[in-house]
Design goal:
Blueprint (H helix, E strand, L loop, with lengths): L1 H8 L3 H23 L2 H18 L9 H22 L16 H13 L12 H5 L10
Helix pairs in contact: 1-2, 2-3, 2-4, 2-5, 3-4, 3-5
Amino acid sequence: MNLLIKRARKHDKAAFQQLMEQEGKAMYKIAKAILKNDDDVADAMQETALACWEKLDTLKKDRYFRTWLTRILINNCNAICRQRERMIPGEDVPETWFQEPGYANTEWKSFLNCLFVKSYPEGEKPLAKENLYFVPVETESR
């Protein structure tokens, strides 16, 4: 893991992707325990991965990478909880639970892949959420 961290610090995208894949399950468990909602968990994990990539140079010692990553994740989860508290509740519509096997893993890998697919101009960052979700658009027949 230390070798991957050293390579990621030198802006090696493949090394960073491997780090995120290794830490993905642990990140999911932590975020799920706090947020209890898969959509919010996915958002927190994406924000965390993006923040870590952008701020990797602020990591003081490589051996604290997991602690640093976890702290960023928890802060993102807490921010989502605060946002949720500010939201005005709508109708109380019960949600039905459906989870396709392997969906969360596929979504995470898709995010990691789209994070590095394009090259972005200096000073700009990818909008990972927009790259991850696809909404079908219905067109009117005339």
